[in-house]
Write a structure and sequence with these properties.
Structural class: alpha+beta
Strand content: 25-35%
CATH superfamily of the largest domain: D-amino Acid Aminotransferase, subunit A, domain 2
Radius of gyration: 21 Å
Distance between the termini: 13 Å
Helix content: 10-25%
Number of helices: 8
Shape: globular
CATH class of the largest domain: Alpha Beta
Bound molecules: pyridoxal-5'-phosphate
CATH topology of the largest domain: D-amino Acid Aminotransferase, Chain A, domain 2
Order of helices and strands: EEEHEEEHHEEEHHEEEEHEHEEEHE
CATH architecture of the largest domain: Alpha-Beta Barrel
Length: 358
Amino acid sequence: MIDTGLRIERSSNPKQKPDPEQLSFGKVFTDHMFVMDYTEEKGWHDPRIVPYGSITLDPAAMVFHYGQTVFEGLKAYRTNDDRILLFRPEKNIQRLNRSCHRISIPQIPEEAAIDYLVKLLQVDRDWVPSAEGTSLYIRPFVFANEINLSAVPSTEYTFMIILSPVGSYYKEGIQPVNIYVEDEFTRAVRGGTGTAKTGGNYSASYIAQEKAAEKGYAQVMWLDGIEKKYIEEVGSMNVFFKIDGEIVTPILNGSILEGVTRMSIIELLRDWGYPVAERKISMEELFAAYEKGKLEEAFGTGTAAVVSPIGQLNWKEHQMVINDKRIGELSKKLYDTLTGIQRGQLPDPFNWNREVNE
Ligand SMILES: *Cc1c(COP(=O)(O)O)cnc(C)c1O
């Protein structure tokens, strides 16, 4: 490891680890967290691992007023032989920097950031759960904390990494979900912030999610913001369709978040010899394929669920039931393969995993 000047202050009263059977998502945190500051004079400085705890911010800290904040989400897994694996962490750190760039936050040195993350995992290694389906969720995030109400980019920032043991996403086995195709609200438009993992994209999507939930749907499918015609994402996941043997996913058009799961699924499918098209796909086209019986499978992809099959799509007055609301054969194979690689139960032919040494 390079000398990054990292300072480590260990917790003097480690917490009780949660019951692995009772784990939910993002409510329990480990004993330590990573913190690093940025000022204009010093750049990024004072990287440190300290006991997990509250932080104090001035009410005029810019993040509260103008939303300059970005985040990432990835997982560490414990293998059957007690190794700790990270899945393509460099992709998340690179994306963190792309998100930072979009909302005028200074770049973070990538190599160093991965080293800090690995070091934090070494310190809290015992927190990576081992029960079937569990993992340690990793949340890096950056926020503006200059004390200033002017609407200009902050000159001061904090980068933090916190860790949370999480339960299996599919406690009762994989259940395909009902999706409402949203034709009123927009998640993102080209030229906007849709390609950045920034908090504002999420708060702007809740209203549609609430509307879908009231109607009895688990999630929304987002259409493009201009014509309300082309499919973009599903909830906070990327989306794939199997149509007449071909796998289609919306092309990264400037309003879609580039998922690490999405890119890994595409690489797997191409390696297996499936035709994969990254292109524009409209709801009309999808519905026409459905009516001809050619829409074979549909699923969302993201770090949390890995693969989330879509059982039903509601679009205007149409109810499209996909694959009898059962998980498709290809969706299942993708889920099993990707989670198998991530958990070290299958070979890792693409060298995606990064092991965290003791
Ligand atoms: C994080 C996210 C995804 C999925 O990205 P992964 O890297 O696969 O977890 C997809 N869409 C949106 C809007 C997201 O925020």
